[in-house]
């Protein structure tokens, strides 16, 4: 036992009125190095005010700020097998699950909810990157499928917010099987005639990109998001070539036709509502409902008389 550290120093601090300051009060912008007070960052939807850099956003905060008045029905997490392969690397997979649940207060990486965005009912599915890198496993796959089934039952569209490093290696082939399963769920929604929009966030990579993240009717992306299958470093080592500046960013993909729009986080609810109303043939705010019709044509010319 260290007597000075454990007894003397705390006594001196208490006498002098010193208080321990939490380490996460100030957050550093990865782009400019600017320090931002965490409350200001949260109020600005986790976007650095000066630089506009989009930080990773907690899944529950995204759902709350997406739906009107922050009100929505949270969809339950389906019960699935835990640690089916009894996997262990530097620590047990069951311990990783326990630690991630304590950290995020969620059962797994997928958070889904039903609510209204600008008056339009929809199902939103959000990856939480803080839960084992947003990786796709059995629980996440099942939650996604159940959310699509709920949307089909409610006859409403689905909006997906992926943020993932890909399939969850601790579940092996069982994780990879979620890719075709979720693809089938997307096809079921489209067969029901309901829209599916994907909002790509930072990062969206691996098997998630190779499946439902690139199957939307429309693809939006947040500024500066990393989007791809393999990482930039892996590609450069494989090709032995230097990749272009900004490769695999939202803006690069927009320029090359892989993304339809790059949208600031603050504008996402309005943009989604407008696009979905157009896709579902509903009146759009600010757009005239009446359709301009061409003027009625004059009476058709009389048929030529038959030659006698």
Question: Features of this protein?
Answer:
globular; alpha/beta; disordered C terminus; 308 residues; 2-enoyl-CoA Hydratase, Chain A, domain 1; 7-stranded mixed sheet; single chain; 34% helix; 2 domains; 9 strands
Description of the structure:
With 308 residues, the protein is α/β, with parallel strands linked by helices. The protein has 2 domains: 24-55, no CATH class; 56-279, 2-enoyl-CoA Hydratase, Chain A, domain 1 (Alpha-Beta Complex). Helices cover 34% and strands 13% of the residues. The strands form 2 sheets. It has a 7-stranded mixed beta sheet, sandwiched between helices. A two-stranded antiparallel ribbon has the order 1-2. A hairpin with a 2-residue loop joins strand 4 and strand 5. Helix 5 (138-154) runs parallel beside helix 7. The radius of gyration is 25 Å and the shape is globular. The model is unreliable at 288-294 and 296-308 (pLDDT under 50).
